[in-house]
Description:
Domain Ribose-phosphate pyrophosphokinase N-terminal: 1-117
Active site: 189
Function: Involved in the biosynthesis of the central metabolite phospho-alpha-D-ribosyl-1-pyrophosphate (PRPP) via the transfer of pyrophosphoryl group from ATP to 1-hydroxyl of ribose-5-phosphate (Rib-5-P).
Number of strands: 14
Mean pLDDT: 96
Strand order of the largest sheet: 10-9-8-11-12-13-14
Helix content: 25-40%
Binding site for Mg(2+): 127, 166
Radius of gyration: 20 Å
Largest sheet: 7 strands, mixed
Catalytic activity: D-ribose 5-phosphate + ATP = 5-phospho-alpha-D-ribose 1-diphosphate + AMP + H(+)
Bound molecules: ribose-5-phosphate
Amino acid sequence: LKIFTGNANPKLAQEICAYLKVPLGKAKVGRFSDGEISLAIDESVRGADVFVIQPTCNPVNDNLMELLILIDALRRASAWRITAVIPYYGYARQERKTRARDPISAKLVANLITAAGADRVLTMDLHAGAIQGFFDIPVDHLTAIPILADYFKALNLKELVVVSPDVGGVIRARNLAERLKAEIAIIDKRRPTANVAEVMNIIGEVEGKTVIMVDDLIDTAGTICLGAQALKEQGARSIYACCTHPVLSGPAVERLEASPIEEVVVCNTIPVPAEKNTPKLRHLSVA
Ligand code: R5P
């Protein structure tokens, strides 16, 4: 077993190696002076079962290209099996056409990963589970919900309601709610344009309750913060939020800070840089 990583999330790769008691594979993923990616794999991988840990988070195109080049080099170096470990799968939100002439970028990315030479993919909390079917190689689709549930169980919160911030997230919310023996509620969200969220209604009883909003990812934090505001207006007593993937782009940090959310629990599928690490964030490891 050999484990390699690019520059997307080396800390997570190190944590996984420590857990497995396997040293991190010797590879240098750098840049040529014109910005192209350079790669040197400094140990034999012939006949090895190789795992490449590389979420395709921001900068998504660089991280994706590093992943493809790593897989290509390992294939040409006669690795026996190559598993692309992609804890966060970038472009997952472009998984179907919603308007004429839209791309299906999530499928294009699947084609690229397969063409590069991956034998298997391991990923977590895909924005749309159907992306598994974009691959003709095995996909292991893991979820961080048990890790999030353990964290909230330890807080021993009472009168708990788990809230899905949109209709698409109901199964995820139910999964968490069952583990916490909580009720669920659903926010009826609308997106008039990309990256803009509007709350229409709250379906379920939240007055006087402690609520936990759960999502696959927090990007600009519009969804989660608008949801929190609506929950507060409906009389929620205290508000928590959690997600697997802290994308945290644009105004996310300011929005979270200004929101009525007490605590935002996130996993380390994506590294959170120091300048985005607001005091409200709690970090859990998926290693
Ligand atoms: C949408 O369906 C996703 O599950 C997230 O709710 C959404 O992508 C979060 O984006 P933002 O934080 O920018 O509202």
